[in-house]
Amino acid sequence: MACRSGKVKNARENIDGALAQIDKLEATMESRAGTKESEFKDKISASLKAAGVSDGVEDKRTNIDGKDYAVKVDYASEFDIDAIAKIVTDSLQIVGIIGSSPTPEQAAVSKEAIKAYTDVVNSVAEAAKSESKGGGTVSYSMSKILPGTWAFLYAISSNLYDKDTFGTETVTATAIFHTIVKSEKTIAIDQHFDNAIEIAKENGKSCRRYLAAQGKILDQFLDDEITEETFDSKDKLFDKKIQELQDAMDVTLEKAAPTSKNMAMRIPGYHLPEAVMQTEHNVKKSLARLSPDNPKHVKVIERTKSRLASGHFAF
Questions:
Q1: What does R_g of the chain's alpha carbons equal in angstroms?
Q2: Where are the alpha helices (DSSP H) in the chain?
Q3: Interval 130-189: pLDDT, tens
Q4: How far apart are CA 279 and CA 290, in angstroms?
Q5: Model pTM?
Q6: 4: which strand partners?
Q7: Where are the domains positioned within the chain?
Q8: Measured in whole angstroms, how far is the alpha carbon of residue 290 from the centre of its chain?
C-alpha cells in the first residue's frame, strides 16, 4: 500500500471519482517501479565500478514488504517530510547503522548525518516531482554514510492532472528505491573517512537538487501545471531549505577546518560546474518566457533577475 498524504486521503474519501483515479495512479506507479528496478541496479553497479568497488554487497534487510522501494502519493504542492524521512531512518535502523546504543562505528552516523541523508531523500524526491509533465521523471543519488558503506536512492515520479476531480491541484505518485551497499575490502582500507566532510558533500548535492527544482517549478507555473499559489509556496519552501543547507555546510566545514569557504571548493564532488551551468541556463530560458505585461509575472521576473544577478543558482 502506498503512503498517502492527509490531503490526498481526504480527497480520496470525499470527492467522487478520486478513489478510482488515485488507485489507478498507484497501480501505474507500482507497475513502473517493477520495470525500473533493474535500471536502479544497473546504476548502482555503474557507480560502484566508477568508485573502484568490486565486492559491494546489498543489504536486503532494508527491503519493505519484500521490495526495495516505497510509493508515496501527495499533491505537487505538498512537502511531506515526516513520511519520507521515516523510510530512511527505518532502513538505517534495520541494518543496525543507528540505534539506541550505537557501537563506535554506528556513532559515526551522527544526528547531523541522519538529517543530511534525510535531506538527500527529500531533495531526490522533489527533483523527480518538479519535472514538467510528459514522460516519466527520475532522480538518483549515491551517498557514502560510513567507511565502505553507501546508501543509494532512485526516485521516479508520475503526475495526475484532472481539474474536474482535483481542481487546480496535481496529484503526484513517487516511487523511492533505496538500498545500502557494503564493501568489506573498502572498509578495511578506508582510513580517511571524514564524517564532517561527507555531510558537507551530501548537503551540497541536496542544495543543488533543490536549486534545480526551484528552477523547474517556474516552468511548471508557466505551463499551468501548478497554480500561482502552489508555485509561490514551493518556491519559498525551497528557498528555506537551500538556506538551511548552506548554513549547515558552513557550520560543518568550520568544524572540519578554519578556512571553511576555501575548504568548500576543495571537497571532491562539492561543486559541479556542469550542473550549475545547466540550472542557470534553464532558469534564463524560463525568464525569457515571462512577460512584464502579465501581472502574475512581474514579481517573479524581479525575483528571478535578482537571483541570477546574485549568483543564487551558481552554487
A1: 20
A2: 6-14, 18-50, 81-94, 104-107, 111-129, 163-166, 184-189, 195-222, 228-256, 260-264, 273-289, 295-310
A3: 765 544 567 888 988 888 888 888 888 877 666 666 666 677 778 888 888 999 999 888
A4: 17
A5: 0.79
A6: 73
A7: 1-191, 194-315
A8: 27
